[in-house]
TrEMBL record:
Gene3D superfamilies: Rhodanese-like domain. The lineage of its organism: Eukaryota, Metazoa, Ecdysozoa, Arthropoda, Hexapoda. SMART domains: RHOD (SM00450). Pfam families: Rhodanese. PROSITE patterns: RHODANESE_3 (PS50206). Residues 15-116 form the Rhodanese domain. InterPro entries: Rhodanese-like_dom, Rhodanese-like_dom_sf. This is Rhodanese domain-containing protein.
Length: 116
């Protein structure tokens, strides 16, 4: 099971450029609610398929490089449920360094800014 990070822990992690912050909400949610500045997006329903794509197809579809199995990945959504489900898919697919951040509700509650 993936470790769940606190607001303080996610802020510390985001100081490291190598960390992939992955938002698994739907694209429409990003437009209406906004997103954490450095986050990338793969909707939760696409995660399993995305991880099976070639590196080139992944980059073409999502606009960023497919993470390596050793990449430092933090997955979030709005409240944590979808992030936990996506983290399980990553772990089951051989990704070793996956953590969960509960999401944008916690981010905003703690003073974090969302970009629209």
């Amino acid at each position: 099971m993936a470790k769940t990070l606190t607001y303080a822990e996610i802020n510390q992690k985001l100081k490291t450029p190598a960390v992939l912050l992955l938002d698994v909400r739907e694209k429409s949610e990003l437009q209406t609610d906004g997103k954490i500045d450095s986050s990338k997006n793969i909707p939760v329903g696409e995660v399993s398929t995305a991880l099976k794509m070639s590196d080139a197809d992944f980059k073409e579809k999502y606009g960023f490089s497919k993470p390596k199995s050793s990449s430092d990945i933090v997955i979030h959504c709005k409240a944590g449920i979808r992030a936990a489900n996506a983290a399980k898919v990553f772990i089951d697919s051989g990704y070793a360094n996956v953590q969960v951040y509960p999401g944008i509700l916690d981010w905003v509650e703690n003073g974090g800014v969302l970009n629209k």
